[in-house]
Design brief:
Length: 318
């Protein structure tokens, strides 16, 4: 049994391992681990205390994948329900022939299945940070009145910092039966344009699990993982016989090959069906965590670096 997670999964990994040790499935462990992060008041990139979009609305994205069947469930742009991972799992498990529900449909589904609600979604302290950020982006330091009719392009450009305001949680587990599951949850890219969906709820981009080969989950600039199909690519590289390290490097190099004006940071964690695991990042200093059934506590491991030079609207960034 093994669980790997992004570092912010520290709050949930031990209870996720407890779940596995007590007969829970890899899917159970992933859901329980991620719920702990979604409920963490210190966490501003996942769950109810995440930073909002440019209009001050919190829109949650999440997905879960079952490596036994490749069944998957995902929600995007969901408001008012903090446990996005649990709603995503229900999309997969209920009698519903769909994989991804977004916006009002996801909320309707969450309501219909009796998912826990959170009203209001945006806490005062988060609202204050949101307002400060808008004020700092304005030449006059005034907070603009943003309504449904406001032109937002310029505000999004000024207020979104590609480096500071993203974050996601990744969990991947192998249970006692050798089954693999992977889950991802995020409040997305803060101060984003409303309706923007990242890689987290996109199966194949930010999340992929296949018992026969392994699994991968991503954090970082989701647009890049969508364009390169990163999580699926890594698993496909395993399928054609590459080692885990080589598969992960190739998936990162595919990201480095992307053209265009918006290239930011990317990170992934991955494991193969033998239980080898790895983390990669486009910059140094990144870590991920892991725990096996014979460990009392999780440990940290360094992510291997594959540098991806940043570009932002034509300018090179450090
Ligand atoms: N990947 C997430 C997204 O693009 C954010 C992040 O991990 O930083 O929505």
């Amino acid at each position: 049994m093994l669980i790997i997670a992004s570092s912010n999964g520290a709050i949930g990994i031990e209870r996720a391992m407890w779940t596995l040790k007590n007969g829970g499935s890899a899917l159970d462990a992933v859901e329980i681990g991620i719920r702990a992060v979604e409920a963490n008041p210190e966490e501003h990139s996942v769950g109810y205390n995440g930073y909002p979009n440019i209009l001050g609305e919190l829109e949650l994205d999440a997905s879960i994948m079952d490596g036994r069947t490749l069944n998957s469930g995902a929600v995007a742009l969901m408001r008012g329900f903090p446990y996005a991972i649990s709603v995503a799992r229900q999309v997969m498990e209920r009698e519903l022939p769909h994989v991804l529900l977004a916006g009002a449909g996801a909320e309707r589904f969450a309501h219909e299945i009796g998912a826990e609600k959170w009203e209001p979604m945006l806490r005062d302290e988060i609202k204050a940070v949101w307002r400060e950020r808008l004020a700092a982006s304005s030449e006059s330091n005034d907070i603009p009145e943003l309504t449904d009719e406001s032109p937002l392009l310029e505000w999004v450009r000024l207020a979104t910092d590609p480096e500071r305001v993203r974050g996601t949680v990744n969990f991947i587990a192998i249970d006692s039966a050798g089954d693999i599951a992977a889950g991802v949850s995020t409040s997305g890219w803060a101060w984003k344009y409303p309706g923007r969906i990242g890689d987290s709820p996109i199966i194949g981009a930010g999340n992929y699990a296949d018992n026969r080969h392994g699994a991968c989950a991503c954090t970082g600039m989701g647009e890049m993982a969508i364009r390169a199909g990163t999580a699926r690519s890594l698993v496909l590289y395993l399928k054609i016989g590459l080692s885990l390290q080589e598969a992960a490097r190739r998936a990162m190099l595919d990201l480095r090959d992307l053209g265009g004006a918006y290239i930011g940071g990317m990170n992934l964690i991955a494991l193969d069906r033998e239980g080898k695991h790895i983390g990669m990042s486009s910059r140094s200093g990144g870590r991920y965590i892991y725990q096996t059934e014979d460990m009392d506590a999780f440990q940290e491991s360094e992510r291997e670096v594959v540098t991806i030079p940043m570009r932002w609207a034509g300018e090179a960034r450090k």
